[in-house]
Amino acid sequence: MLNVFEISRMTNHNGPGIRTLVHFKGCPLRCVWCSTPESQSREAELGYKVQRCIGDGACLQACPAHAIRPAAAGEKGLLIDRAKCTGCFVCVRECYAHALTRIGRAWSVEELLKEIRKDELFFQNSGGGVTFSGGEPLMFVDGDMIELYRGVKEAGISIGVDTTGFVPWESIAGVLPFVDFFLWDLKVMDREKHKALTGADNRLILENLQRVEGLFAQYGTRVYVRCIQVPGMTDSDENLLQTCAFLRGMRCIEEIDLINFHHMGKKRYEYIQRDYAMDEVEPMEKARLEEKKKLVEAQGFRCRISS
């Protein structure tokens, strides 16, 4: 079974053409700027959208663990004790307003293949396909995952993988024969700073990318390097130049994409009732991003700015 928390159809920003984006649940990193916090745990989670809540109290009565209680006087909504919640999701079945929802469910290979193939015609006409994302889509590569990749490839559908690169090499090697391109995150080149900002150093990430490059002649798998620009954290020119120096000479590199930091994930933190730590950080100005693009191009790479 394959643990998925979201499927986005008709996207055009995670690889060429029109694509279906499949988000797998579970991630080994804990980036402080993460915009999809519900992707971090592999387990299904309880989501709560207070604006949908009608306050009928059905969930309070239904919860066998007594993990749900009303908010304080004068405040709207519910408080969920995540330590008590057992993940039975009885409350979700009783919530007719759909304020409480289950985030993540197991899909069979057949189910997911059927879902992906719904848009085959659009893939064919646009040069698109499917992009597997997360979380980290390569965190749990097993027989079912290999079967999924094989099934998609046998259907003639392009496969992209949006990855942190922080996975065992065996996981990458298992799917590499089926992958057309990677969207590969390179956040910070300094090892200790990477650890402070993501929870792990970057040694494995860099080694894995070098191994993909080493197999380029055999598989021809392209890599789009993604560099998120978080002001005060990952946005120094020095870091960008170090990234370019590491990538120089790699035949697999298609381009370097500069990803501007944004606050679009804030609502997702509210959804799972977690604190959002990035309120004080502002996205980078467009003029500054253009300067960085020129810096990358001066190092001999194609470069694109993404929001």
TrEMBL record:
MF-aspect GO terms: 4 iron, 4 sulfur cluster binding; metal ion binding; oxidoreductase activity
The protein's UniProt keywords, in alphabetical order, are:
4Fe-4S, Iron, Iron-sulfur, Metal-binding, S-adenosyl-L-methionine
One Pfam entry for this protein is Fer4
What this protein needs as a cofactor is: [4Fe-4S] cluster
Residues forming the 4Fe-4S ferredoxin-type domain are 44-73, 76-105
Q: Which reaction does it catalyse?
A: glycyl-[protein] + reduced [flavodoxin] + S-adenosyl-L-methionine = glycin-2-yl radical-[protein] + semiquinone [flavodoxin] + 5'-deoxyadenosine + L-methionine + H(+)
- Every copy of the Radical SAM core domain together lies at 13-302
- Superkingdom of source: Bacteria
Q: Which SUPFAM superfamilies match?
A: 4Fe-4S ferredoxins, Radical SAM enzymes
Supply the name of the protein.
Answer: Cobalamin-independent glycerol dehydratase small subunit
